[in-house]
Every structure is written in structure tokens, then in C-alpha cells.
């Protein structure tokens, strides 16, 4: 099986504090991998390393067998790594359609044209509409992104990621801060994306039922170290994981209610 | 229709242009014609500032330097060589080339950092140009400045009026196309969420450089026209007031709408003209800058999105009312 993403001895430290320690990870193409671990385990930091927001102190990252450790955020996005953020990260004063269109424009490699091309833009608009349907945002084209409900904003983020036409999706807690009623819709969108089989998805998620339902593989991080990885059913029975994480999860479930 | 100008009230624009075209035939006041010419010139300058602040969200405290570079290039060429259309073109090209160079270097040095670095650096470099203009007496005649003659075509107030009117229209259309292009859309995205734009695969530094250079070129062009309209130049073109004028005009007209910048230029120049004329009759109006300051405060508090934003709000309200009425009809 081909590995779309690999990390070798990836480490990063902020001052004295090691946040990620020697993480060596192989991610298979077309699978859905969930990263779990207690708060502060380094999950989002690992994402930041993968998408290029921060650079590692040690170790390397390979995407499709090419070293991307030194590439900028924008260049990694162009290669095919798309990412969503824990806190909603959209263009608040543009319409939903424009938000998605900007992602399509990037995937079209239409970067620096300084004169508008109408036929081109109309095609992008049609494409954007298709992505809106896919993410259950139909009818919201002309709404400003800042006026969307929180759950819809998360859907918009997913739509933008899909519109980027990347191969690897890094989803950082797509259900964070979402009300219980809205979760099934997000779950459905992610499931549909997975079914399409075009993407490899890496998911950070705290909701264990969702993780167990979706994942092909589980990665457990604890204090910045890779504690275990493998088949979800087996991982969940692992004693070390139980003590390290599921105790933490218990607290987590009380907190999120 | 998803046309290019779908959001612009095009008929209004056409009506205003038509009125401006016919204006010299019905007007015989020379000072009004000169005032309108000044408004057109400052409209170009304000639009260039709007590309930076309104579209890309870059704050510049030294935008006057590009205005000054354009003005001095033209003036010096006219003074040193002979005043004809060819030398005007040469001066224009030199001014624009210098502006491209300066805006590119400043942008490259500071735009990868947080935005206030650009603001500080532009302020510093614009003061540097002010000092240069003061000290390079052999060419610039220092702070007193110098007068020069302009080509015959520009001497005639009516023909120069039409030239500036044409310039505003052309610059407006070019900048409008620019902001509606792929690049322009990314600029707007950067102004709202730079990190997201980067995560989408856009190299934001490149875009901010494009905005910086575009604004520099347009400002330089307006500066050249300004010098021609006065037939005189001194170091005032490099003063901070010129930058503040551009800021006021775009704020009053509405950020991020090129038409707003034109309207803002009109309002400010018009007020300045009439308030200083009033000062001849009522000495209290000698302090007309205070009134401008007061206007500025009112605008910031009352209409934070400027004139354009205010009009937009009104039309939206109207549309909603109509919609509501239709819905009520349906129910009934």
C-alpha cells in the first residue's frame, strides 16, 4: 500500500519544552486516520507541522515520497495538503459562494491574472455551487460567511477544503463548539467525502463514538509522543492507551457535557 | 446576471460622466473648472490609497511619497528640458518607474511582517524624500519650489479638464477590472484573513506587493497631473497632510469601494474650496481645517463604512421592504 504522508523522527520544541517528540508516522492513501489524545498531547501542533504553520526542530515530512519539510504553507497547499482549523477560519465579509470560489481559484492555479475573465469566473461559480450542495449549504450562496450559524461555518470550511481539490485533508476538530443537533450533518458530510475515495483524511476528534465509527486507523498521542497506532478496535483495548487517554476522555466527556 | 459591474450602479455613473462631459459648455466660471480638475486628480490619488487600505488592508502613512515622486519627476523634466507632450511622457514614465521601484523595495522589506511595519517604513521613507527635495537645491530649488511652463494642450483649462476627466475614468475602469480579477479577489481575502488565504495556497506576500506597486503607480500618475495643474511645485507634496487627505477621502467615501474614493475626493475638495472662500467674509472659517476634523469624527461615529456603505445600507433596506411586501401579498 502506498503511503501518502510520512513523518520521520518529527520533533519540535518551544524553548525547553518538547511538544512533539520523535513522531514517526505512515499514513496510507485513501484511509481515514484519527489522532486522539488528551488535551495538550500535541495533536494540533502535529497538524501545524504537517501543514507548515510551524517548522520542526528535528525530523522530516514526506508527502507522496517528496520531502516537504521546508516548504511554506502556501506551497504545501498547492501540492495537495488542505487543512481546516479548530477555530473557524473563513473570510467573514465575503459571501459563502466567494469563500468557496477562492478555494477553486487556487486549485485552478489561477494565481496572478489581473484582468477578470468572465467565462472562467462563471465556471468557477458553477463549480462552487456543486461543492455547496455536497456540503449541505444549498441556498446560502449570497449570505455573508459571518452571518452563518456556527455549524454552517464548519460546513463551509469543509466545502472550501474540498474545493481546493487536495488529496490530503487535515481536519482539526470539525465538530468543536457545535451543538449536538448539528453533529450528524457534519458527520454525514465527512462520511460522504470518505465514501468518494478521492481523499486521505486525517482527523483530530474528541468524540469517541464518532472516531470509532469513522476511522480506519487510530493514532494515539500522549505528551507529544506516539503512544500507539493501528486498528481502532485493538488500540482501544490497549492498556497504556486506556490509562493515558480514556481516563482523560472521561474528564473530557464531563466537560463537554 | 453575473456580469462584471453587477454591483455598481452603472446608470448613475454614466449620468455623472455625461454631466461632467457637458459641464464646460454650461459653465463659465474658471475657478469651478479648476476645482473640478483638482477633484479629478485627487480622486485618482484617493483610489490608489483605497487599493492599499480598502482592498488589501495595508496601512500606509507615507502614500504622499508616490504622489510627490510623480509630481517632482514631471516638474523637474519640464523645468530642465522643454515643455511638450513628449517630455510629459518621459516625466510620467520616470515617475512611475521610480514609484514601482520604491514601492516594491519597501513592500519587500516590510510586508512579510505585521502591517504596522509597512506604515512606519512608508512614513520614514516619505520623510526621506521630503528632506531630499529640501536639500537638493540645484534641482528642486528647496522648500520654495519653482514654477515651470507646461505644454499648450495643458495650458488651456478646458482641455486639461477633459484630460483629467478621461484619466479618472480610465484609472477607475482599470482599477475596477483589477479588483474584480482573480488577483483582486485574493487581495480582498487577504484583508479579511491572511492566514486562511495562505492556507488556500496563495503566497500572500506576492499579492501585497502587487497591491503596493499598483497603488504606487496610480498615485504617481495623479501626482504628475497635480504638478501640471498647478504649474508650480514645492515640498508640500511630500507633507503628511497629503497622505491624510487620501485617508480622509477614502474614509468618507467608503473603504473598499473605488467609487467611494471619488466621492470622498469630491466632498473634501469642495468643502475646502468653499470654506476657504467663506473665510473671506467670515473670519471664523479661516479655521476650516477644524470643520474638516469635525466632519471626520462625525463620519467615523455615524457612518463607519462611509458614504458608499450608507447608500448600500439604504438600498438593502428598500429591497427588504419590497420583499416583505411581496411575501405579505403572497400570504394574503
Tell me the layout of helices and strands.
The complex is a heterodimer of chains A (257) and B (332).
Chain A: E1 3-14, E2 17-28, E3 32-36, H1 43-51, E4 58-63, E5 66-67, H2 73-79, E6 81-84, H3 96-107, H4 118-134, H5 150-163, E7 168-172, H6 183-196, E8 200-204, H7 208-214, E9 217-222, E10 225-230, H8 232-237, H9 239-256
Parallel strand pairs in A: 3-8, 3-9, 6-7, 7-8
Antiparallel strand pairs in A: 1-2, 1-4, 4-5, 9-10
Helix pairs in contact in A: 3-4, 3-5, 4-5, 5-6
Chain B: H1 10-26, H2 30-56, H3 64-80, H4 85-110, H5 115-135, H6 137-140, E1 146-147, H7 152-155, H8 157-180, H9 182-192, H10 194-199, H11 204-230, E2 232-233, H12 240-253, H13 258-281, H14 288-302, H15 306-331
Antiparallel strand pairs in B: 1-2
Description:
Chain A is of the alpha/beta class and 257 residues long. Chain A folds into two domains: 1-80 and 167-257, Rossmann fold (3-Layer(aba) Sandwich); 92-165, no CATH class. Chain A has helices spanning 43-51, 73-79, 96-107, 118-134, 150-163, 183-196, 208-214, 232-237, 239-256; strands spanning 3-14, 17-28, 32-36, 58-63, 66-67, 81-84, 168-172, 200-204, 217-222, 225-230. In chain A, the strands form two sheets. Chain A has a six-stranded mixed sheet with strand order 6-7-8-3-9-10, sandwiched between helices. A four-stranded antiparallel sheet of chain A has the order 2-1-4-5, covered by helices on one side. In chain A, strand 1 and strand 2 (17-28) form a beta hairpin. In chain A, helix 3 (96-107) crosses helix 4 (118-134). Chain A starts with a strand and ends with a helix. Chain B has a single domain (10-290), classed as ABC transporter involved in vitamin B12 uptake, BtuC (Orthogonal Bundle), CATH 1.10.3470. Chain B has 15 helices and two strands. The longest helix of chain B has 27 residues, at 30-56. Chain B is globular and about 80 Å long. Residues 1-6 of chain B have low confidence and may be disordered. At the A-B interface, helix 2, helix 3 and helix 4 of A face helix 8, helix 9, helix 10 and helix 11 of B.
Amino acid at each position: 500500500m502506498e503511503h501518502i504522508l510520512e513523518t520521520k523522527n518529527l520533533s519540535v520544541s518551544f524553548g525547553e519544552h518538547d511538544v512533539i517528540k520523535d513522531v514517526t508516522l505512515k499514513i496510507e492513501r485513501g484511509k481515514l486516520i484519527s489522532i486522539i489524545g488528551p488535551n495538550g498531547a500535541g495533536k494540533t501542533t502535529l497538524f501545524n507541522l504537517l501543514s507548515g504553520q510551524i517548522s520542526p526542530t528535528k525530523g522530516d515530512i514526506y508527502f507522496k515520497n517528496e520531502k516537504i519539510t521546508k516548504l511554506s504553507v502556501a506551497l504545501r497547499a498547492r501540492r495537495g495538503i488542505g487543512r481546516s482549523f479548530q477555530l473557524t477560519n473563513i473570510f467573514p465579509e465575503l459571501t459563502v459562494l466567494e469563500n468557496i470560489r477562492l478555494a477553486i481559484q487556487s486549485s485552478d492555479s489561477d494565481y496572478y491574472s489581473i484582468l477578470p475573465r468572465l467565462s472562467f469566473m462563471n465556471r468557477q461559480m458553477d463549480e462552487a455551487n456543486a461543492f455547496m450542495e455536497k456540503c449541505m449549504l444549498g441556498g446560502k450562496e449570497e449570505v455573508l460567511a459571518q452571518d452563518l450559524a456556527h455549524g454552517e461555518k464548519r460546513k463551509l470550511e469543509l466545502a472550501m477544503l474540498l474545493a481546493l481539490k487536495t488529496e490530503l485533508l487535515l481536519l482539526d476538530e470539525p465538530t468543536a463548539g457545535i451543538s449536538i443537533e448539528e453533529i450528524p450533518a457534519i458527520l454525514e458530510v465527512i462520511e460522504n467525502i470518505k465514501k468518494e475515495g478521492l481523499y486521505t483524511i486525517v482527523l483530530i476528534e474528541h468524540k469517541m463514538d464518532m472516531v470509532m465509527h469513522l476511522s480506519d486507523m487510530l493514532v494515539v498521542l500522549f505528551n507529544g509522543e506516539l503512544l500507539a497506532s493501528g486498528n481502532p478496535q485493538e488500540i482501544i483495548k490497549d492498556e497504556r492507551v486506556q490509562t493515558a487517554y480514556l481516563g482523560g476522555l472521561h474528564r473530557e466527556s464531563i466537560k463537554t457535557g | 446576471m453575473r456580469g462584471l459591474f453587477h454591483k455598481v450602479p452603472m446608470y448613475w455613473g454614466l449620468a455623472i460622466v455625461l454631466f461632467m462631459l457637458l459641464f464646460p459648455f454650461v459653465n463659465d466660471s474658471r475657478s469651478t473648472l479648476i476645482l473640478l480638475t483638482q477633484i479629478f486628480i485627487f480622486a485618482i490619488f484617493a483610489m490608489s490609497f483605497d487599493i492599499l487600505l480598502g482592498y488589501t488592508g495595508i496601512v500606509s502613512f507615507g502614500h504622499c511619497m508616490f504622489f510627490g515622486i510623480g509630481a517632482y519627476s514631471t516638474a523637474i523634466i519640464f523645468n530642465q528640458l522643454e515643455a511638450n507632450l513628449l517630455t510629459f511622457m518621459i516625466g510620467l514614465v520616470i515617475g512611475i518607474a521610480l514609484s514601482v521601484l520604491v514601492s516594491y523595495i519597501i513592500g519587500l522589506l516590510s510586508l512579510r511582517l505585521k502591517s504596522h511595519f509597512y506604515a512606519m517604513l512608508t512614513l520614514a521613507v516619505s520623510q526621506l524624500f521630503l528632506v531630499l527635495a529640501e536639500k537638493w537645491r540645484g534641482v528642486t530649488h528647496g522648500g520654495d519650489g519653482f514654477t515651470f511652463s507646461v505644454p499648450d494642450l495643458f495650458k488651456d483649462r478646458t482641455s486639461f479638464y477633459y484630460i483629467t476627466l478621461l484619466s479618472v475614468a480610465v484609472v477607475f475602469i482599470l482599477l475596477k477590472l483589477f479588483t474584480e480579477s482573480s488577483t483582486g479577489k485574493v487581495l480582498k481575502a487577504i484583508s479579511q484573513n491572511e492566514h486562511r488565504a495562505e492556507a488556500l495556497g496563495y503566497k500572500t506576500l506576492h499579492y501585497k506587493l502587487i497591491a503596493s506597486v499598483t497603488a504606487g503607480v496610480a498615485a504617481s500618475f495623479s501626482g504628475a497631473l497635480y504638478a501640471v495643474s498647478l504649474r508650480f511645485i514645492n515640498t508640500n507634496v511630500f507633507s503628511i497632510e497629503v497622505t491624510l487627505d487620501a485617508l480622509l477621502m477614502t474614509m468618507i467615501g467608503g473603504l473598499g469601494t473605488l467609487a467611494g474614493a471619488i466621492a470622498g475626493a469630491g466632498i473634501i475638495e469642495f468643502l475646502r474650496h468653499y470654506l476657504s472662500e467663506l473665510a473671506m467674509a467670515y473670519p471664523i472659517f479661516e479655521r476650516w481645517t477644524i470643520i474638516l476634523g469635525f466632519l471626520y469624527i462625525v463620519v467615523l461615529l455615524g457612518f463607519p463604512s462611509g458614504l458608499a456603505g450608507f447608500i448600500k445600507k439604504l438600498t438593502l433596506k428598500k429591497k427588504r421592504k419590497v420583499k416583505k411586501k411581496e411575501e405579505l401579498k403572497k400570504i394574503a
